[in-house]
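Backbone shape codes:
***
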Amino acid sequence: MSKPTAGWAAWKALGSPRYVCAPMVWQSERAFRIVVRERGVNLAFTPMIHADIFLKTFTDPTSVPTADLYSHFANVCQDVVPPTAPVSVFHTSEEHNGVNDGMTELIIGGVGVHDDGLGVSPHAVIPRTVPASRHTDDRPLILQFCATDVDDFVAAARLAESELGEYIDGIDLNLGCPQRSAERGGFGVHLALRQPERVVAMVAAAVDVIRLPISAKIRVWDDVDYTVDFAKSLAAAGIAFLSVHGRTASQRHHDGRVRVETIAAIVKALPDLPIIGNGGITTREEADAMIAVTGCAAAMAAGSLLTNAHLFATTPTQPPNIFDECAVYMAAALTLPPPSPRFIRDHLMVHFGQNLRWEHPDLYSMLARQRMVRTHAQFVELLKHLQDRFVGDTPTPTHDRLTLRQIKYLDGVDPATRE
């Protein structure tokens, strides 16, 4: 097998992107990617996928007890494969008030895999029609894995290439996640910290057998020289490009100074490797400054993009109204239902967060704690209550609002019987 095109040739094949949507667990799914692509993003990553779960659920869809897991093979397919592609997208016959309930299914190997957020199981299905529209334009797209084992990463990459290769433009290895779950699982930045030699072996082994470009996303160390040497080892292993978050593993809450000088040092040391600079970017102007100061090929944003989908837009905009932002996302999520209700839930929590938890515990309980809200129709109705509470006005008469109790039962399931 020929080696994948690396370096600037691979970057040019991606369209020489400048503004990048970061991989974000539970939040960089297709509906959100489409929204930000329409507002200036020209390269996006999938949420992080656990390689071992991806492999396991390909051979046995029922091997993982919950469908509320992005890494399930069926869920990844639903997120990556366009609605107009041969893989069929389905939904249950149950609809509420004429609004699609957002619960979706895929036919994978002849088995209907149903995602109601409660479990994966074979299920009777009927075809669902998704309009062929601008919502199918989700390229270039990089699929990101996390892994701890060389064989798992290579096998997952090979599976992704064989089953999804025509819908993705590269495969990325997560070496930057600093969260507690990554520390416990030994992946992300914690794998890079503990076993850098294994990381290099993972990349080299994948490059040897995968035609798609292989890339990686890392964080920096306090030691600039060590960080540069680690980046050089990944380049020598054959990565096509490298994303660098300019914070260390200890800055897990995305706080503190971004070490742009370290990103610049990597760029200087590796002129043949495109570098994406990441960290602290909240405006297009800051993205342009990151590129100008470090010499990197592109700038990547994560959390700031979640709260302002217009971050990379050409035309400057006023600070976004959170309800307008939510409405735009919800419209995309209706056309392209995410694999799990958790995607929508997490997007709403980004906007309302702690205010909801402490000031409106009844809404917080429904949305986050008890997870009563699971369908698109329920989310839409809950947003009306959120607007009433946060804005203090009612654009439509109060009698058009369903009560919170009615919203709980809107999916046809008695909340008292939920698992």
Observations:
- Residues 131 and 399 are 33 Å apart (CA to CA).
- Residues 1-5, 86-135 have pLDDT under 50 and may be disordered.
- The first strand starts at residue 19 and ends at 21.
- Residues 341-359 form the longest helix (19 residues).
